[in-house]
Amino acid sequence: MTKSTLSTDVLVIGWGLAGLVAACEALDAGKRVILIDQEPRTNLGGQAWWSFGGLFFIDSPEQRRMGIKDSLELATQDWFGNAGFDRPEDEWPRRWAEAYLNFAAGEKRAWLRERGVGFFPVVGWAERGGYGALGPGNSVPRFHITWGTGPGIVVPFAARVEQGERQGRITILPRHRVTGLVSADGAVAGARGDVLATSAAERGEESSRDVIGGFEIAAGATVIASGGIGGNHDLVRAAWPERLGTPPAHMLSGVPAYVDGSMQPVAEAAGARLINGDRMWHYVEGITNWDPVWPSHGIRILPGPSSLWLDATGKRLPVPLFPGFDTLGTLAHLRTTGHDHSWFVTSRQIVEKEFALSGSEQNPDLTGKDVGLLLKSRLAKGPTAPVQSFLDEGEDFIVENDLESLLEQMRRHPGGDALDIDRVRNEVLARDLEMDNDFTKDAQIGMLRSMRGYRGDKLIRTASPHRLQDPAAGPLIAVKLHVLTRKSLGGIHTDLDGRALDADGTVIPGLFAAGEASGFGGGGVHGYRALEGTFLGGCLFSGRQAGRAAAG
């Protein structure tokens, strides 16, 4: 096997969004850059390419046009109430949170607009909370969808990197897997590793790990932007915290297999401190992809607030664990039930209005920037085409015209033997009885009626309140839901320049980290919980900080 030896000013490990931004910043500072990744070049852009493109802004023009009154003060209250920072090592994550909030309220939007990034005019309301003003959740809608979804946010930075490649200022090396960092005189001075065999795998598909050679790259600065652990279920289970109950025996993957955490031990061996590994972000509305790209490929339903949510036995989830309100609160509750799945019971009318699917490939109108298709799919009667495909082909969907037939099919479905059918029937009937008046004791019904006071919800996200068994609402639908792995909220401990810190809190010269590898900043900018729309933004901000500092 041959071994190549190269040198550069800045080495970036990982070409996801954070790595692309870091590389762009180093290029703009006039530095020579090498960008490497273990995957084939078809995967340039990493996980961000597959995302819905949600971005967190504070007091944006889009918010103001929708009548939303937001402020840095309110967003800070929400972030810190959500994060629950409570550890000595949270000092830098706290500082990152403050810096990111100022970025989101300040130059973030203009900085992206300068790069040609646009935004869908209707602002979404994710993680609605439902506790108190100081508790978890967004007080106002802040979820801004990128026009073009994930590719819309990736392309400007990928294009800048590829321009640098044509100019001979950046070298892009696919199929280069780092196995160790090189140290010299107490500083990190580059990386070494394996060259993997050329792969014809398409974007997101699992690729081989056949080694055909080796490499060593000397660098003045090295940036780790290699992502998290969500594609490696063994690592997810090993890091699973007691506060979230027992880890599921069965999970779906919301990220490709290459999100394997392989750089964590490499960084640790070089002296970097990994913190908050027990903080993680997984969804509970996962459905099996009927047309998978990677192993155990799951898609998340982005739900509106109306569906009836039941555990595997048919018991309704407690207040305020309604669809779209508290991701980790719901996960923690469901892990106490002894089952790995739960159920939505809903109507076609709710599905038409409220079911969106996470992922660029599940939103061809937004991803393709197709206004005509958007109007036809989002505002016309009927589910979007991708949702309809899951209704037709998805193994987790049951559609029946009456409640008794639906209950019978739920019972026959894998996992349905745990259902108490009488309880499910009673839950549906009791909910429907509450729909006869404009007032109610049912907190979920009261909340969804209140939410229709927000124009964005009334327009495209919250169905008009109705009985689930109302014939005019269409067939009844049950959806079996699974835990869907997604994000690591902890990672490499860094200062505000993205410089990696050792166990004593001392800067490791020459080593930087960004994106999910650094917990989106500092080793865990989100604390215990995310406000949504903050993962891509964390990649942007931490990649920018690390890229600028590495080039300094």
Automatic annotation (TrEMBL):
Transmembrane segments: none annotated. One of its GO terms (molecular function) is steroid dehydrogenase activity, acting on the CH-CH group of donors. This is Oxidoreductase. It holds the Pfam family FAD_binding_2. It comes from Microbacterium natoriense. InterPro entries: FAD-dep_OxRdtase_2_FAD-bd (IPR003953), FAD/NAD-bd_sf (IPR036188), KsdD_DH (IPR014614), Succ_DH/fumarate_Rdtase_cat_sf (IPR027477). Gene3D superfamilies: FAD/NAD(P)-binding domain (3.50.50.60), Succinate dehydrogenase/fumarate reductase flavoprotein, catalytic domain (3.90.700.10). Keywords: Flavoprotein, Oxidoreductase. The keyword Phosphoprotein does not apply. It comes from the Bacteria. Residues 9-536 form the FAD-dependent oxidoreductase 2 FAD-binding domain. NCBIfam families: PRK12834.1 (NF009472).
